[in-house]
Amino acid sequence: MTIDQNPIASAGDHLAVTDALYRFGAGVDHNDLDLLTSAFSQDVVVDFGPCGRKMGLEFPLLTGDETVVSFLSANAGAQTTSHTITNGRVHVEGDVARLRALVDATHLPQGDHSRRCQMMNWYDVELVKGGHFWRIRRLVIDNAWFTGDPQVLLGK
């Protein structure tokens, strides 16, 4: 995804669009299904493939908000996670927005914080306006770097 280098969204639009990614991160970190669900459109597609392949893992392409939330909440329940979202660039055209952000994601097994997987990932996000909120319609996660044990992501 290419993001324009010029000022591309008003401050209000930037915050409203980025809030969808904040809801995603906080929903996972707190295992809050309502907050997590609020981040996605019903027809969402989430692709962890580029990130997983760089760590030697395979993840299925996830489609539909129920599938995505179920997958994320199952993993979140078995892990302690933190997601820090930064460097967001937003482009808005009508009721469609694009966001590219850098996300530091740390995953630790519940009850065993001696192991972890820390990743710095690029999130390429397409969003649609849904009611009062922007919602993620497509999310592709690519890994910039990682450290630790990738098996933690699989609950192992």
Structure description:
By secondary structure, the protein is α+β, with helices and mostly antiparallel strands. It has a single domain (11-154), classed as Nuclear Transport Factor 2, Chain: A. It is 28% helix and 44% strand. It has 4 helices and 6 strands, in the order H-H-E-H-E-H-E-E-E-E. The chain has helices at residues 11-29, 33-38, 49-54, 65-77, and strands at 40-47, 62-63, 79-93, 96-109, 117-130, 133-148. A 6-stranded mixed beta sheet has the order 2-1-6-5-4-3. Strand 5 and strand 6 form a beta hairpin. It starts with 10 loop residues before the first helix and ends in an 8-residue tail after the last strand. The model has no long low-confidence stretch (mean pLDDT 92).
Summarize the structure.
The protein is α+β, with helices and mostly antiparallel strands and 156 residues long.
Q: What are the SSEs and their pairings?
A:
Blueprint: H1 11-29, H2 33-38, E1 40-47, H3 49-54, E2 62-63, H4 65-77, E3 79-93, E4 96-109, E5 117-130, E6 133-148
Parallel strand pairs: 1-6
Antiparallel strand pairs: 1-2, 3-4, 4-5, 5-6
